[in-house]
Amino acid sequence: MNRPRSARSGLRLILVAAVIAITAVFCAERGPVLAQTAKPAADHGKSQHPKKTEAPQVNLDDAAGRSTAVLSHLNAVLRFYRDAEAPIQKVGEPSDLVYRNQVVAQATQIADFAFQAAKEEAALQGHGQAGSAAPTSKLQQTRTTVEQRITALKTRHADLEKAVAAAPAKKRAALEQQLEQVDGELELQSAMSDALGRIAGMADLTNDTGFSAQVGQLEHSAPGVTEKKSTVVAPTLQNFNASRNAGVSSQAIVLFELLKTRGGIDNLEKEAERLHKQALDVRAPLVTLLKKTLAEGQALSQTAAAPSAGSQGAASATPKPGGGTAAPDSARASFDELTARFKALSSAAVPMSQEMLTLEQAQATLQAWRTAVNDEYKLILASLLTRVVAIAIALLVIFGLGDVWRRAAKRYVHDIRRRRQLLVIRRLLTGFVTGLVLIFGFVTQFSSLATFAGFITAGIAVGLQTILLSVAAYFFIIGRYGIKVGDRITIGAVSGDVVEVGIVRFYVMEMAGGGTDLYATGRVAVFSNAVLFQAGTPLFKQMPGTQYAWHELTVKLSQEADYRPAVQEIVKALQGVYEGYRPQIERQHKNLELWMDSSLDAPGIQSNLLLVDGGLQFWVRFPVVIRQAAAVDEKMTEVLLELIAKDPKVKAAVSGYPVIKPTVKG
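The chain above was modelled as a monomer; its predicted structure follows.
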C-alpha cells in the first residue's frame, strides 16, 4: 500500500505544476496576440480558394475618436428614447395616445438600429476581439480535452471496480494498483478542469473592456431596447371634451398643460433633428469607404476583363485592392477580400441608414402630434375666452340692473327708511347673484366644492359667532319694528339719535342732559347688532312713523282755596299752547294707524287730581314733538307763570311752582 500512496503524492505534485504551467502559458500567449490586433487577418494570396475569410479590419482614421463619436451618438439616442418614453401629455384625445405610442415604438427602433450599427462598428474596428480570440480558443480546446479525459477515466474506473470484484485473489492486487492510478489521474484532471474554468472566467472579465464592452453596457442600461418594447406604461389621458365644458379654472389648467405638452413635443422634435444630423456625420466615413471599395471593385473588374498586355498565354497583371498589381492567380482572392470588406462596411452603414429613416418618420409623427395638440389648444382657448366673455356680460348685466334699481329707489321712494331697506336688499341680491355667476363660471367640481364649503362653514360658524349673530340681527333691525337713521332710541344707559345702521353694527349719537333739555355730547356710541339678542340690554325706540314724546306737569294745590276754577284755567292755558303744534301730532298719529292698520286713541292733553303725600296734586300729561320739546316746555312754563301772576284764584289755589318733566327720559 505504500507504493500507491507515493504514486498519489507524485500525481499531486504534477497537478500543481500543471496549473502553474497553464497559467504561465495563458499569460504568455495573451500578450503577443493583443499586439497583433492591427495586423491583416489573413494572406489571401496563399490560397486561390480559401474556405473561410475572417471579417477584415478596415483602417478608419483616428479609431479612438471614431469610437468616442459612436458612443456619444449612442448616449444621445438613449436620451431621446427615455424622453420619448416619459409621459408628457395629461389631457387630450385618444389619437394623442396613438401618437405617443408611435413615437415610443419609433424611438425603440432607432435605438435598436443604432446599437446594431455600433456592434458592427466594433467588429469592423476589431477592438478587443482579435486579441482575445486566440487565447480563448486555446483555453476552450484544452478544457474540452480535459473533459473528454475525465469522462474516459470515469469509465475506466467503473470497469476496474467491476474487474476487482470479479478477479481472483492473485490478480486482485494488480487491479487495485491500476485503480489507484486511475483515481489519482482523475483527481488531477478534475483539478485541471476547475483551474481552467477559473482562468476562462478571468479571460471573459478581461475581455469585457474597450469599445465593444461599452456598447454592450449601454445597451443593457435600456431594457426596453433589448426587449424591443416600452417599459413605461402609457398614461391615462383626461377627457378633452369634458375639459371643454369645465369651468374657467379647470380650462386654464388644461390650457397650461397643453402648452407644456407642446413644449415637450418641440423638445423631442429638436432632439430627433440633432440625432439625424449626428447620425449623418457618423455614417459619412463609412459611406466614403464603401464608395472607395466599390471603385476598387470596378477597377478590378475592368482590369480582369481587359485583354492580356504580354505574350499569349501569360497571366495578366491585376491591381490589388490596396494598390499595386497582383498575379492572375490572386484575382479571386482580391475579389473575396473586397467582398468581405464591403459586407463589413455595409453591415455597419445599413443600420445607420435605417436609423436615419426612422428618425425622419419620428419627426413626421411628432409634427402630426404637435398639430393635434395645437388644435386642442385652440379649442380650449376659444372655449375659455367664450366663458370669460359670458361671465363679463353677466356681471355687466347684474351691475347695470343694480344701478337701475338704485336710481329708481332714490327717485321714486321718498320714505328714507324704505329707500334704505331697498338699497340694502339691492346690495345683498347683487352680491348673491354675482357670487353665483362667479362660482358657476369658475368651478365645475361641485362635489369637492360642497365638501370644502362644509368645512369652511363649520370653521366660520365656530370662529365668527359674534359676527354671524350681528349679521342675523341686522335683518331684525331693519325689519318692521327696527330702527333707522334719525330715530331717538335708548339702549342700556345710552340715549341718542341713530346716525348709521350697518350690517354688523350701528352708531348712536349720545344725548345727555337733565329734565326735558337733551343735547348732543359730541360722542358716538357704537353697538354690535348682536346686542338685539341680549336680554340684559333692552333697546327702546319710537313707534314707527312717530316723532313725539309725552311730558307731564304736576302742580300742588292748597286745601284751603277752591281748586276747581284754577284747574280749569291751567288746562285751558296748556290747551292753548298745544293747539300750536297739534296738527303735527295728529298727522304722525294717522301715519301710525295706517302703518299698523288699526285705530288707536288720539293723543291729547290728559289731566287728573291726585292725593300725594297727604296733599292734593294736579297732574297733566301732554304730547310734544321731540325736536321741539324744550321750546314747548318753555312755552308751557311761561304761560303757567303768567296765569298764576294774573289770576288771583289760580294763585290762591296753587301752593307751589309747577314741575314739568318728561314721562320717559330720552
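The mean pLDDT is 76.
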